[in-house]
Inverse folding.
C-alpha cells in the first residue's frame, strides 16, 4: 500500500534521511521505532510532503513525491503530528468538521463515532480546543484526521506524555481503526505499545532503517534493542 | 452636543472605512506573515477605477465592478507574483509589495494626471440626511456607514459560520496542518489576498468621492492603515477594528477642535508664557496637530504595549 524507496530528506542544508526504504501493506499496523532525533518524524513528514525530499514514495501504486501535502491527503493518507496541533480558537466540533475533506464527505467515520469512542470530547463539543487537556487534544487530533477517512493513517507518538488511562484508550482506538480496514504507521518510542499491537516493526538509526522484522524478531534480537532503542 | 454627535458619526464612518482597509491587511498578515505595502495602492486604484467606470456607466455599477476587478487583480498578484517570491523569504516578499506600491504610484499619474480627478458623489445620495440644530449630516456619509457595517457583518459571518471561514481561521495558526488534512491552503491564501484587495478597492470606491481622488491618496491613507495594524496588534482583526474606530474618531474630533494649550491657561498668569518659543508651542491648535496624532498614538503604543491592543506577537 505504501512503499518508500531510497528516501532522502533535508532541513535546509542538513541532510536528515539517508535512503529510507520501508513498506506498509493493506490492513497492517507497522511501527517505526528509534531514539529521539534519528529521523522517525522526518520520515512521516517526508511522506506527507512537509519537508524537502528526494526518492520515491508510492501509495496505492501512485507516486507521491513532489506533490503538495493537501494532494497527498486527498489520495487517502492521514497524518497526526506529534505536537497536538489542534486549531485552538475553533471548538472541538469545528475541529472535527475541518477533518472532513468536503462538507458532503461520507466515509468510515462520523462525529458520533468519535464522541462514542471519547465521551469527554462530546461533553466539550462546543469548547474551544485550545483549553482542552493535553490528552484530550491528542484524542482530538487523532479523531480529526480520522474524519478525513484515510486508508492509511500515520500517527506520531500518540501516547507521549499521556496518563496511563488515556494510553489504554489510545490503544483501543488503534485496534478500532485497524478493524475498520485502515492501515497504521505508528511512530513510537515506547517499545511495549509497539510490540503489543504491530504486525511488523522498523527501527531507525542515523536517518536510515537499521532493523526490519516482526515483534518476535525484535524481542529475540537484544543487539538491536541495546544499540538502537534502549536508553 | 450637536458638534459631538456629528463628529462622532463622521468619526465612525471614517473609522469603519479605515477598518475596511485594515481588515484585509490584517488577514493577509495573519495568514502569510506579509505586510502588504501595496494594500493602500488597491484603495487608490479602487477610487480611480470607480471614477472611470462611473463616468461611463454610473456609480452603482462601479460600486460592484471596481472591487471585483481589484479582487481578481489581487488574487492574480498573489498567485503569479507573491507565491513565487515567497520561496525567497519574507524580506523579498516585503520588497515585492513595496515595488508594486511604487509602480502603482507612478502609473496612476501617467493615466489620470497629477491633479485630483472629479470623482463626485452620486446625485441620488447628494442630499442632507438629517440636520442637528445647525449642522447637517450628508446622506453619503450615512451610505458609507451602511456599506462598511454591511461588509463587516458579512466578513464576520463568513469567518465564523462558513466552512471556508473555519479553514481560514485554522490556517491563521496552523497552515501546515490544514494542508495535511487535505485543504488547499495556497488557494485559500489566494482567496484571502483577493478578498483583502477587493475590500481595499471597495473602500476606495466609497472613500474616493467622499474625500479626494488623487495620486497621493495611497500614501496618505497607507501610513494610517499601518498605524492601525500596529496599534491594534499585528494580525488581530478585533484589534484592527477597535484601533480603526478609535483613530477614526480621534482624527475627526481633533480636526474639528480649535483649541490650544494657551487657551487652557488663558486668564491665569503663567510665567512660562512670557518665553517666546514656549508661547508659540503653546499656541499650536489641536486641529493643526491632527495629522500627527495617529503616529503619536503608535509611538506610545510601541513604547508601552509593543504587541498592540489585541496582538499576541512581540
Amino acid at each position: 500500500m505504501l512503499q518508500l524507496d531510497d528516501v532522502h530528506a533535508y532541513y535546509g542544508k542538513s541532510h536528515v534521511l539517508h535512503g529510507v526504504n520501508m513498506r506498509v501493506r493493506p490492513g497492517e499496523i507497522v511501527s517505526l521505532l528509534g531514539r529521539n532525533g534519528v529521523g522517525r518524524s522526518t520520515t512521516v513528514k517526508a511522506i506527507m510532503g512537509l519537508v524537502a525530499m528526494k526518492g520515491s514514495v508510492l501509495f496505492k501504486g501512485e507516486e507521491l513525491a513532489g506533490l503538495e501535502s493537501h494532494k497527498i491527503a486527498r489520495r487517502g493518507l492521514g497524518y497526526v503530528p506529534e505536537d497536538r496541533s489542534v486549531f485552538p480558537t475553533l471548538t472541538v466540533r469545528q475541529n472535527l468538521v475541518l477533518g472532513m475533506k468536503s462538507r458532503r464527505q461520507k466515509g468510515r467515520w462520523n462525529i458520533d463515532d468519535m464522541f462514542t469512542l471519547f465521551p469527554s470530547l462530546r461533553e466539550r463539543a462546543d469548547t474551544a480546543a485550545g483549553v482542552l487537556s493535553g490528552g484530550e487534544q491528542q484524542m482530538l487530533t487523532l479523531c480529526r484526521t480520522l474524519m478525513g477517512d484515510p486508508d492509511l493513517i500515520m500517527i506520531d507518538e500518540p501516547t507521549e506524555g499521556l496518563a496511563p488511562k488515556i494510553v489504554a484508550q489510545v490503544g483501543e482506538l488503534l485496534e478500532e481503526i485497524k478493524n475498520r480496514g485502515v492501515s497504521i504507521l505508528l511512530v513510537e518510542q515506547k517499545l511495549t505499545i509497539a510490540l503489543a499491537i504491530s504486525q511488523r516493526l522498523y527501527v531507525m538509526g542515523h536517518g536510515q532503517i537499521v532493523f526490519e522484522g516482526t515483534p518476535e524478531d525484535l524481542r529475540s534480537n537484544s543487539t538491536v534493542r541495546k544499540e538502537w532503542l534502549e536508553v | 452636543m450637536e458638534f459631538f454627535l456629528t463628529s462622532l458619526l463622521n468619526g465612525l464612518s471614517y473609522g469603519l472605512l479605515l477598518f475596511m482597509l485594515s481588515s484585509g491587511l490584517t488577514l493577509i498578515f495573519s495568514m502569510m506573515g506579509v505586510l502588504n505595502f501595496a494594500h493602500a495602492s488597491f484603495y487608490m486604484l479602487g477610487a480611480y477605477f470607480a471614477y472611470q467606470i462611473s463616468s461611463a456607466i454610473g456609480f452603482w455599477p462601479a460600486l460592484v465592478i471596481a472591487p471585483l476587478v481589484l479582487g481578481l487583480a489581487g488574487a492574480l498578484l498573489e498567485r503569479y507574483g507573491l507565491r513565487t517570491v515567497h520561496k525567497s523569504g519574507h524580506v523579498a516578499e516585503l520588497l515585492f509589495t513595496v515595488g508594486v506600491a511604487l509602480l502603482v504610484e507612478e502609473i496612476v499619474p501617467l493615466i489620470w494626471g497629477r491633479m485630483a480627478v472629479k470623482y463626485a458623489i452620486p446625485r441620488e445620495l447628494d442630499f442632507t440626511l438629517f440636520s442637528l440644530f445647525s449642522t447637517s449630516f450628508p446622506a453619503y456619509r450615512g451610505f458609507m456607514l451602511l456599506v462598511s457595517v454591511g461588509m463587516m457583518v458579512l466578513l464576520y459571518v463568513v469567518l465564523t459560520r462558513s466552512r471556508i471561514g473555519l479553514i481560514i481561521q485554522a490556517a491563521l495558526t496552523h497552515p501546515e496542518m490544514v494542508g495535511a488534512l487535505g485543504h488547499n491552503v495556497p488557494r485559500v491564501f489566494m482567496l484571502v489576498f483577493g478578498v483583502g484587495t477587493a475590500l481595499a478597492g471597495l473602500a476606495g470606491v466609497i472613500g474616493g468621492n467622499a474625500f479626494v481622488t488623487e495620486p497621493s491618496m495611497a500614501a496618505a491613507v497607507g501610513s494610517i492603515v499601518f498605524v492601525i495594524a500596529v496599534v491594534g496588534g499585528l494580525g488581530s482583526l478585533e484589534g484592527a477594528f477597535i484601533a480603526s474606530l478609535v483613530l477614526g474618531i480621534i482624527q475627526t474630533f481633533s480636526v474639528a477642535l480649535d483649541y490650544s494649550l494657551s487657551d487652557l491657561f488663558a486668564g491665569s498668569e503663567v510665567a512660562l508664557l512670557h518665553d517666546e518659543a514656549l508661547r508659540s508651542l503653546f499656541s499650536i491648535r489641536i486641529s493643526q496637530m491632527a495629522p500627527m496624532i495617529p503616529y503619536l498614538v503608535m509611538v506610545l503604543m510601541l513604547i508601552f504595549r509593543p504587541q498592540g491592543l489585541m496582538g499576541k506577537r512581540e
User: Anything to note?
Assistant: Chain A has a mean pLDDT of 90.
